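Weekly sync, protein design subgroup
Attendees: M.S., D.O., the rotation student, P.L. (late)

Item 1: inverse folding check
M.S. brought a backbone from last month's batch and wanted to see whether the design step gives back something sensible before we order anything. D.O. pointed out we never logged the input encoding, so this time it goes straight into the notes. Structure tokens as presented (290 positions):
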């Protein structure tokens, strides 16, 4: 029992001593403030949408209340005159029927019909005015001249003599359909087209191939070196066109005494083949309506 009592006393004394020591330390030394630890500032990422995105979100969120309904007297004043004008316009109608002088405008109504008929006749007059030397007349006269079975005569310029040369054939044919100021010789006819800026030179190694790509019926074709003329051009003929049935091109004119055309004459229609001389140029006939 003594031992247990002494043990309890000892424990109590130890507790008392510990309590006194803690109080003494707290009174002797002031308590130190605790050091706070601060975290680094981290920027917050935000998705910022500017411009129309914010405007759209605001427009969607806004709710506009309906406008208050006011009874405006102006609407009634605007609607009232309509029946009044209708009522005022009704009485004058029988007055128009009773006046014989005002019936005249009804007789003037047929006038637009006359104007439309004149307009309809206008294009017909334009079509009639297209008269003169045409490609159709040129072809027809070329066939008619071929049927005369003329021979090639150098220097001849009159069919009544029995023959023509190449340039005289072209001159006679063009004069017959109404083309004016046609020169007599082939080189002068070449210069005639050149002065009118209707000539296209196609000389060279591939002159024939170039010519077929550009040719059109009614063109004059010029050659050089067919005889010693002293000029660049010495022969001329007329291009008649291409026949897909025979796959051949045809020309008209006078080629020579030894060459015969489709009718067996020297002044005739010939198949377009390579002939003596060299190809120089081709061009449109001045004054011809193509």
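Designed sequence read out in the meeting:
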């Amino acid at each position: 029992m003594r031992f247990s009592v002494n043990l309890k006393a000892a424990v109590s004394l130890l507790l008392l001593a510990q309590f006194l020591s803690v109080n003494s330390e707290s009174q002797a030394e002031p308590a130190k403030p605790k050091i706070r630890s601060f975290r680094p500032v981290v920027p917050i990422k935000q998705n910022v949408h500017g411009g129309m995105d914010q405007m759209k979100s605001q427009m969607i969120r806004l709710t506009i209340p309906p406008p208050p309904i006011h009874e405006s007297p102006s609407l009634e004043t605007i609607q009232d005159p309509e029946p009044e004008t209708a009522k005022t316009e009704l009485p004058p109608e029988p007055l128009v029927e009773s006046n014989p002088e005002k019936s005249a405008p009804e007789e003037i109504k047929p006038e637009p019909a006359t104007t439309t008929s004149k307009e309809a006749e206008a294009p017909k007059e334009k079509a009639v005015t297209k008269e003169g030397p045409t490609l159709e007349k040129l072809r027809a006269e070329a066939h008619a001249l071929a049927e005369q079975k003329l021979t090639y005569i150098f220097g001849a310029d009159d069919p009544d003599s029995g023959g023509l040369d190449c340039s005289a054939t072209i001159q006679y044919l063009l004069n017959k359909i109404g083309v004016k100021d046609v020169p007599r010789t082939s080189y002068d006819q070449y210069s005639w087209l050149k002065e009118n800026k209707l000539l296209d030179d196609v000389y060279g190694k591939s002159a024939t191939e170039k010519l077929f790509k550009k040719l059109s019926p009614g063109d004059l074709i010029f050659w050089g070196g067919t005889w010693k003329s002293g000029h660049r051009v010495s022969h001329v003929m007329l291009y008649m066109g291409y026949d897909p049935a025979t796959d051949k091109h045809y020309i008209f004119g006078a080629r020579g005494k030894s060459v015969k055309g489709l009718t067996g004459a020297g002044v005739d229609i010939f198949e377009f083949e390579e002939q003596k001389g060299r190809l120089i140029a081709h061009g449109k006939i001045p004054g011809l309506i193509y």
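Discussion: Strands lie at 151-152, 163-164, 199-201, 220-224, 235-243, 248-254, 267-271, 278-283. Confidence is low (pLDDT under 50) at residues 73-91, 94-100.
Action: P.L. to compare against the previous round before Friday.
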